[in-house]
Design a protein that fits this description.
The chain has 100 residues and is α+β, with helices and mostly antiparallel strands. It is 36% helix and 17% strand. It starts with a strand and ends in a 5-residue tail after the last strand.
Length: 100
């Protein structure tokens, strides 16, 4: 069952940006699910235990398409601004759905 439509996502060294439209789930449940699953996998890979993510998350409601496009642009350019890549497409932890 899909919980949300993911417009784009970028995993940075110390935080994650996710732009999503929820279907029938709350943002809190979606974020909790992502944090739980990813913490479990990272802890298994690193052979460690304990929390991976901070308790809090910061969310914003985007009401207009122009704002959605601006947020997506900000998220996708984050690795370039941080000096991690020359373009967002070259960054290995960048995702957006294929178009066309």
């Amino acid at each position: 069952m899909k919980r949300c439509w993911i417009h784009c996502a970028v995993v940075m060294p110390d935080h994650v940006h996710l732009l999503a439209t929820p279907y029938d789930e709350t943002i809190l449940r979606i974020v909790s699910s992502i944090k739980g699953a990813s913490a479990y996998k990272v802890n298994r890979l690193l052979d460690r235990q304990g929390p991976l993510w901070q308790q809090e998350s910061f969310d914003r409601i985007v009401r207009r398409d122009e704002d959605l496009n601006a947020k997506a642009d900000y998220i996708l350019r984050n690795p370039v601004r941080a000096g991690l890549s020359h373009s967002c497409e070259d960054y290995p932890w960048f995702w957006r759905p294929a178009t066309g």
